[in-house]
Amino acid sequence: MSSVPETQHHEGKHPTFKQYVFIALILFVITAVEFVIIVPESMQGAPVSLAPLIILSAIKFGIVIMYYMHLRFDHRLLSIVFLSGLVLAFAAFSWLMILFSAFTPEPREYAKAHAVPFTHGESGHMAKADDGSHGSDSGHVESHSEEETEPVAESSSSASDGMVGQGVFTGVAGCAGCHMIEGVPGAVGQLGPDLTNIGTVAATRVSGTTARDYIVESIKNPTAYLVDGYAPIMPAGLADQMTDDEFNSLVDFLMSKQ
Amino acid sequence: MAHVGGQLPTSDVDHTYTTTGINHRKLLMWVFLGSDCLFFGSLIATYMVYRGQSLVGPYPIDILDIPLTTISTFVLLCSSFAMVQALAATNKNDQKGIQIWLLLTAFMGAIFIGFQVYEFNAFRLEGLLVSTNLFGSTFFTLTGFHGAHVSLGIVWLMVLFFVARKGKVGPHNALDVELCGLYWHFVDIVWIVIFTLLYLVGGFDAGPVAGVLTEPSLLSLLA
């Protein structure tokens, strides 16, 4: 084909200023939507957020290539050359993921068993700052001063599952800031009741309530059952910071503390 | 480079006859961008493969500042729009427009780099270095190389800007601006991917212990 009609075709379909503004707006809106998707804590890192996020960014990717880089209006060979690279890259990406994750999950299992939870030292600027609570935040910081680098590994008898619950306890949920559990590094808080034997104690607290129900209710609705001698300062809504899996792991972990 | 002086008629450059019907430099640029996909693809894959395998913190959720990075993502998107306008101004031989839009593009790129410098420094203060854990190694390598691409783009834009100030950029060498634009937009789309995977999807990884959404869900998406 001759390049002259190609060029005319190209010129004719080139987006106008207005269209470029419109395209830019679409890109902005998509980015804003992506951000809004992950604002609710239940969506943060949740599998349900994965598909929309990837689809939306793929749309952005496509728009930029087709219009800003005007691949849509250009010679097909350019598309072929670029897409070959892109497809190869995606294939390599997928294969590496499968190779390292599906075929050899051992490193991750090792990490699960040996990783040390991280706690902020001086500045906890963005760590769940919106739990909106006074008591928990200060408690949070306090607990980190001591033994924050203590490995969490040995203390738990069960393998990975108990570790997840313990990780929630000392990590995301921030329980360890106020509650102590003997043998759990970092769980040295004094503001709330000692939970070392909570699995046993919980069953005896309220007649007609099982230990599990007691624990679940106490996390979801901290003022439901108060322990004498402790101020009612535990923030409500802590459960909302966790995924359902994390919450269940946490309860399992506490139940195991007999 | 070949058409310094601007005495070539507007149409000549675009209509250079080649066996493919495409200007060689433009083809080369697209081949390069295709290969750069592989480069970033490997770095992103490396990040994802080692995701959730760090043994010590800080983990992503501990330090990533997603609202801040969303802002810098907006800035980079804006710069792509400015780049498009720079090329449009070049085609119209709007000398003032060429200079303004080129400078604006470079300026917004510099703001993006500023955000990145701030971010890297904040991470350093929080205790995350390249050598701290797998997260640090893969994160800094990936985003660092992206930042290097942006920085190179800024240099390229500034060179074009200074050439434009001498009135030597116009329709006769619009390809020079177009190629720079292709590179710039590519850097933008790479960031779209990085922002999504590292920040929006992986930004809430709390280490392997309390880790949510590790690779199996991503695998199920691929398979």
Throw out a few tags for this protein:
heterodimer; A: 258 residues; mainly alpha; Cytochrome Bc1 Complex, Chain D, domain 2; 2 domains; 0% strand; disordered N terminus; B: 223 residues; Four Helix Bundle (Hemerythrin (Met), subunit A); 72% helix; elongated
Protein topology:
The complex is a heterodimer of chains A (258) and B (223).
Chain A: H1 3-13, H2 17-37, H3 47-68, H4 76-102, H5 106-114, H6 134-144, H7 160-170, H8 198-205, H9 211-220, H10 244-255
Helix pairs in contact in A: 2-3, 7-10, 8-9, 9-10
Chain B: H1 10-14, H2 24-49, H3 60-63, H4 66-91, H5 95-126, H6 134-165, H7 174-201, H8 215-222
Helix pairs in contact in B: 2-6, 2-7, 4-5, 4-7, 5-6, 6-7
Report on this model:
The complex is a heterodimer of chains A (258) and B (223). With 258 residues, chain A is mostly helical. Chain A has 2 domains: 3-110, no CATH class; 122-255, Cytochrome c-like domain (Cytochrome Bc1 Complex, Chain D, domain 2). Helices cover 55% and strands 0% of the residues of chain A. Chain A has 10 helices and no strands. Chain A has helices spanning 3-13, 17-37, 47-68, 76-102, 106-114, 134-144, 160-170, 198-205, 211-220, 244-255. Mean pLDDT of chain A is 75; it is low at 1-12 and 122-159. Chain B is an all-alpha fold and 223 residues long. Chain B contains 8 helices and no strands. Chain B has helices spanning 10-14, 24-49, 60-63, 66-91, 95-126, 134-165, 174-201, 215-222. Residues 1-13 and 209-217 of chain B have low confidence and may be disordered. At the A-B interface, α1, α2, α3, α4 and α5 of A face α2, α3, α4, α7 and α8 of B.
